[in-house]
């Protein structure tokens, strides 16, 4: 039985529970991180923890633990469950309150951490590439709920995912309110055109992805020019390559969007180079769970 960290204790996963009055349940009020462990190494743990605290600050949620204490919780949760390859979900909620909206009624945030086996895209998809669509659901505006905040309210993403599921696709791409490509329901997006790697700026409505940052670093180390700039579906349809980055995906190639082949319809050389580069970065940018 897996153990879940919950407010200072490790409890059996099937007994881990929070109050129905927690504002995470009532209003999606809280923040989270998804972290990956590779053979006992937590990838860029410090950066995930820093982003968690930044996002909590953005919604005025005071976390009752230091960043060092939070990092130790993640390490220990993986260790307690004797996992080496894992996905970790770290969550901070507003806590138990009443049925009203006022967050001041929530006196103590709830903190829990889950470590479990990771579900990956099928290996063959990295060889043949993924087919995706552009969603009719638009990314929410930054002046309402900023997409840079990794909050517990993911309904925008879920609605786009439902659309993709209904049409038989594994992923959907968001456009923002101005019609520019921003990201997918769970991944950042990159295209390659004339040897230049291009990704939307976070200001357009994309999450500040840690795997996204890693892909940019790998590209720059390999001498590939990188641009963070706006582009439209036309630029996506006419790209030489396209790939998605995320905690579980790393860098997964996209070979078709809305029925249009990307490049020659096969994973491209830049995509393969970025994906292979992850193996070198993990050990350098990781925190060891087991000494």
Automatic annotation (TrEMBL):
One Gene Ontology cellular component: cytosol
Assigned EC number: 2.6.1.42
PROSITE patterns: AA_TRANSFER_CLASS_4
Gene3D superfamilies recorded: 3.30.470.10, D-amino Acid Aminotransferase, subunit A, domain 2 (3.20.10.10)
Gene Ontology biological process terms from the UniProt entry: isoleucine biosynthetic process; L-leucine biosynthetic process; L-valine biosynthetic process
Cofactor or coenzyme needed: pyridoxal 5'-phosphate
Pathway in which this enzyme or protein is active: Amino-acid biosynthesis; L-valine biosynthesis; L-valine from pyruvate: step 4/4; Amino-acid biosynthesis; L-leucine biosynthesis; L-leucine from 3-methyl-2-oxobutanoate: step 4/4; Amino-acid biosynthesis; L-isoleucine biosynthesis; L-isoleucine from 2-oxobutanoate: step 4/4
Keyword Transport: no
CDD domains associated with the record: D-AAT_like (cd01558)
Family annotation (InterPro entries): Aminotrans_IV, Aminotrans_IV_CS, Aminotransferase-like, B_amino_transI, BCAT-like_C, BCAT-like_N, Class-IV_PLP-Dep_Aminotrnsfr
Top-rank taxon: Bacteria
First-tier enzyme category under EC: transferase
MF (Gene Ontology): L-isoleucine-2-oxoglutarate transaminase activity; L-leucine-2-oxoglutarate transaminase activity; L-valine-2-oxoglutarate transaminase activity
Family: Belongs to the class-IV pyridoxal-phosphate-dependent aminotransferase family.
Record's function text: Acts on leucine, isoleucine and valine.
UniProt protein name: Branched-chain-amino-acid aminotransferase
Organism of origin: Calorimonas adulescens
Gene expressing this chain: ilvE
């Amino acid at each position: 039985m897996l153990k879940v960290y919950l407010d200072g204790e490790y409890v059996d996963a099937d007994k881990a529970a929070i109050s129905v009055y927690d504002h995470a349940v009532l209003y999606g009020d809280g923040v989270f991180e998804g972290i990956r462990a590779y053979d006992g190494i937590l990838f860029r743990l410090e950066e995930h923890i820093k982003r968690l605290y930044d996002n909590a600050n953005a919604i005025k949620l005071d976390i009752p633990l230091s960043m060092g204490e939070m990092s130790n919780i993640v390490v220990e949760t993986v260790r307690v469950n004797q996992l080496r390859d894992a996905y970790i979900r770290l969550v901070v909620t507003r806590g138990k309150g009443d049925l009203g909206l006022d967050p001041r009624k929530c006196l103590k945030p709830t903190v829990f951490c889950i470590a479990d086996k990771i579900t990956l895209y099928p290996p063959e998809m990295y060889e043949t590439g993924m087919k995706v669509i552009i969603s009719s659901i638009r990314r929410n505006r930054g002046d309402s709920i900023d997409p840079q905040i990794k909050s517990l309210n993911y309904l925008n993403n879920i609605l786009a995912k439902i659309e993709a599921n209904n049409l038989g696709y594994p992923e959907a791409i968001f456009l923002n309110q101005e019609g520019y490509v921003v990201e997918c329901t769970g991944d950042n997006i990159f295209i390659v055109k004339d040897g230049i790697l291009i990704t939307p700026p976070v200001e357009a409505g994309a999450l500040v992805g840690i795997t996204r940052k890693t892909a940019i670093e790998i590209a720059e180390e390999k001498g590939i020019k990188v641009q963070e700039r706006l582009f439209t579906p036309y630029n996506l349809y006419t790209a030489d390559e396209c790939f998605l980055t995320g905690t579980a995906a790393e860098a997964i190639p996209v070979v078709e969007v809305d029925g249009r082949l990307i490049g020659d319809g096969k994973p491209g050389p830049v995509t393969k180079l970025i994906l292979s580069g992850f193996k070198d970065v993990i050990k350098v940018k990781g925190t060891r769970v087991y000494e």
